[in-house]
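User: Last request for today: this protein with magnesium ion, please.
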Amino acid sequence: MSEQVNRTGEVSAVFGEVVEVRWDGSDPVLAFQKRSVGAVVVGDRVDVMEVPGDEAEISWRVSRLHSRERCLWRSSRRRRSQLVAANVDRLAIILAVAPPPKTGLVDRYLVATESQSIPAIIILNKVDLPGSGQIVDSLTVYRTLDYAVLPVSALTGEGIGSVEKHLESGLTVLVGHSGVGKTTLLNLIIPGVELPTRELSSATGKGRHTTSAVTAHSFRDGMITDTPGIREFGLVDIEPETVSAGFREIAALEDSCRFMDCSHREEPECAVKTAVDNGVIDRRRYESYLRIRESLTAGER
Ligand SMILES: Nc1nc2c(ncn2[C@@H]2O[C@H](COP(=O)(O)OP(=O)(O)OP(=O)(O)O)[C@@H](O)[C@H]2O)c(=O)[nH]1
Ligand SMILES: [Mg+2]
Ligand SMILES: [Zn+2]
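Assistant: Here's the final one, the structure of the complex with magnesium ion:
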């Protein structure tokens, strides 16, 4: 009997039945997924086993899936709950000067990251376009809540050094609407990756979304993962009562509300509403909180 080699690695790409796995100081290997082990996603830690023999180029098989932490889930009207990535060290929410950012989407992402204790940063791309100053100003509230807001241009390279510094370790997942420049940014940070961006896909005339797969690429001591652009970001496993945990400024105050289960809508002596009226809590963020809560109550996610 031949000796079996076992290794533990990190999944960096998923292509149906086949996954790419990396471990320290080696090139990634391709491994077959085993149904009994369960489907894996980017960021999963897995054991792989070398299977000698006739399976052509792929001689590895996933033999165990380690337990997951810091999961990024999403859902949409078309697709139910989907695990995007596991063991995420950082979510980078990418916005662009044009099309102008929807801050409600940022708030939804932050509800997801706070619930999983995933650190989040905000990257505002395309600051080479006119009107960027005003949009940077509109994001000031996130800075006051201790989220890094990094203005950048993937076209001119302005601000790229600061972005690189933030992404140089751990597993980062880039998320945001289609067309904000996630892939352009990744191509600039990791020369040689050369993933297709908008121009290329419009040349082939295929589809509106340029990126269709979740793939992770090595960068310095970490990995950066591109994801397909989204139209909506549905929250998974978040109850109306736990939405406030995703709003740092609300979570910090809600112990002072008169009622322990205060929803911060109509209740008397609500410390959160008082803070909104006094300008201590940003009104737009508060309204965003109400909207997200309402959408979950209505069962829309
Ligand atoms: N002016 C300007 N245009 C940019 C910048 N970054 C990207 N773009 C353009 O924006 C368009 C969309 O870029 P992509 O990188 O394909 O966007 P994406 O977020 O990856 O889109 P999906 O893959 O569909 O989610 C392309 O035409 C880019 O050339 C930038 O910093 N400034
Ligand atoms: Mg893309
Ligand atoms: Zn309250």
